[in-house]
Amino acid sequence: MSSYTYPGSGRSVRSRSRRGSRASGRPAGPSTRASTCVEDMNEYVVALSQSRGNGTEVGIAVHSLSTGHTVLTQVADTPFFQKTLQHLTLHPPCTVLVPENRNQAGENIPSGTQLIEEVEDSFELECVTLPREYWNREKGHDDILRLAVRNEVQTSTLMAAEEKYYALCAISALFKFLEVRQGLKYPKEALKIRYASSEGTMFIDTDTAKNLELVKNTLTNTTKDTLYGILNKCFTPMGSRLLRGNILQPSNIQHTIEGRLDAVQELLSSPEKLKSIRDGLKALGSTDLDTLILQASRKRQGSVSVVETEARISILLQLQKYIQGTKSIQEEMTLGKCRMLVEIQKEMSDPMLLEIERKIQECLTTDGITNSAKRRNLTTARLYAVKAEFNHLLDVARTTFKENLDDIEHTILTSMTERHSLHCTLEPVENKFRLALKPQDVEGRALPGECINVQRKKTKCVFSSVLLQHNARLEEAQQEILLLSGDIVMKLLASVLDHISGLYRCSDAIAKLDVLACFAESASDGDCVRPMFGETIAIKLSRHPILDKTLGRDDCVPNDIYAAQGHASFQLIQGPNMSGKSTFLRQVGLLTVQAMLGCYVPATYANFRLHDALLSRLSNDDSLDRNLSTFASEMATSAMILGLATPNSIILIDELGRGTAPLEGLGLSHAIAESLINRQSFVFFTTHFHDLATTLGSMRGVVRMHLRVQDNRVEDDNNAFSTTFQYKVEEGPAVIEHYGLKLAKLASLPADVLNRAKEAAMSLSELEAKGRDSTASHAMIKRRKLLLERREADNEELAQTLRHLQRESLDEFTKTFQAVA
Ligand SMILES: Nc1ncnc2c1ncn2[C@@H]1O[C@H](COP(=O)(O)OP(=O)(O)OP(=O)(O)O)[C@@H](O)[C@H]1O
């Protein structure tokens, strides 16, 4: 068991080696290493509040440090906390807060130790404990009231969180931590806080997200060659964020998905419109509107110093530019017919945005201090950022300033020319002025004594003058202007933020539009088809979405996929090593996610089901880095799958039972498969166990498939042969035997080793065949004996036994018949 130190509130709770901690403790949980991607930069502060005792109710509050977005939720979790981990994968944490508890001796101990272990192992961080009094339901409720932007989202958040005790506790601890420990004080009603329900989404456990490489390439630790990487053609950070969230938690509500598909179809039908919209989005640049809104909220209060005023003006001008940018996009959308595009257009033309634009336009000059061409004239820009005639007092101060400036210009410049023949110019710098001369005017020449702070540069010589320094009136007037401007800008920002909900709505709308336009763009450059949804999975000539891009369309072999409730829910897939089994499984998973995002898929026809969960046991999650044995990991993942699988789940299992003795592996694989068949989940199951095909083959719902391989056999004493992998999935059992040996030959294993391996394999096959015969005769003897014994038993029991034996014999007959055929 891991050793913890209990150093008191707010300090790390763990002082153990992460590796190996599980090996000595409870059974290993499924690998849950998070699938974060580089862009996320783990920027979320997360608070977790778990029900006491054996319950697994977990309240989660997450807060983005860059956008201020706060999401709370409460989940009834599995024993290994997959749902909590999935939520954290969506919001990669930099800090995780947990409540501290006291044991009988009055010492502080972290509560929910198992949850803490899972989180620490998955996200490679150490949780931070906070005193119990921070975790307060009422305070959580008040925080939402105090900090959330007042709009319909706040109302629905309060309603949804009303009965969620642990979620409210978590949010109260979160804000207490941010305010007290981090000194982050948010102004009232400035944050986007929402309650997220997992209802209406497909659950994807963290292992599956990782193994399908949905958002992170495990080899390169980037988004390259991931589903996110190939789909993400978004221009805005909000769009990319939304896309990533949707990939990790796709919708399973048909209305929502069809709405997106309608929008994509409409954009696809008008390439010019799509291009103009994407050009408009591109012009918005990489500015993160959510971050900008948060910065604006933070600047709502504070000093009116020059630096602060400058920052406020910069934010206001960026907001104005953003709103103007959205206008051009709206114009392109006026012809929108489908529901979602109409809604987006409505959100983007929110009257609040026009009001914000009007207010900024009325007050500020647009070519203010953000204009880089004028940066050298910063002081002047600062002084004239607020428009003339906007404020009478400001106009008066400016007139005084101008008079002083003219006066100085006249006195000093004239005096310099007349007395020293130096033709100076006046140059504003920071909050003061200085004089400047061209280098050739001062070359080899000493400057008069009244010139001080002389700096000779390549392009000019700058200096100050005693006269200039003593001009207090000029500085006074300048300060007056800056103070008045600061006050005006502060009020302007506050009045702009009265419309903060309009800004947040606009940000959401831009994100949605960006994602839809990116789906349309992806669909426009390839043979993709609009997916449909029904009771069966039927996909014609589908391509692996990532291989399609990386290998190229010509080299990516298309495959049909079919599964249906009842007669074909369990696909048992066999084939030699390297024949493409794992790739096929991943293809099924990726296409399912892609379709449920509302995205066209690479196929010629596609019908999907809407699933409640996508679960998997794929072969590259052996978690060596977590000191888990392959077998322990397999069993834990299988337990998780069996715990969550329903008839609406889609499950991908790749070569189960490899990590233990073959017979045990076969037995476990059979039992797990049988359980999934009985649940009627849609399962794609690859295996190297030939016997599994025999034991499962006759069960209702099982369809046997194989990956076609062309065996170019010229088998002689030298084992000369070659195998062509065709990556084509076909119905029926696999036909090539000892393909492992053939692949080993291709890998240039020494000939003597190969020959020995072949001999051993042949002998084992013979032994196995003999064993099967003797087992069969043994079973027959047992059956006869049983029949004799049953003669004495009551008639019904006898009838049942006979029926059972009849079924068994029939099955065996069918199998023999199929084998002979
Ligand atoms: N449909 C396809 N089109 C093109 N190439 C493919 C296709 N399917 C698989 N491949 C290629 O074949 C290689 C082997 O595929 P994969 O790993 O899926 O085989 P496998 O049967 O699972 O092998 P093993 O049993 O050894 O794990 C992959 O590297 C992949 O690039």
From TrEMBL:
Family annotation (PANTHER family): DNA MISMATCH REPAIR PROTEIN MUTS FAMILY MEMBER, MUTS PROTEIN HOMOLOG 4
Keywords from the UniProt entry: ATP-binding, DNA-binding, Meiosis, Nucleotide-binding
Natural source organism: Kwoniella mangroviensis CBS 10435
Listed name of the protein: DNA mismatch repair protein MSH3
Molecular function via GO: ATP binding; ATP-dependent DNA damage sensor activity; mismatched DNA binding
DNA mismatch repair proteins mutS family domain ranges (all copies): 649-665
BP term (GO), one: mismatch repair
SMART domains: MUTSac, MUTSd
Region (Disordered): 1-35
Record flagged with keyword Nucleotide-binding: yes
GO cellular component: nucleus
Ranges of Low complexity composition bias in the record: 22-31
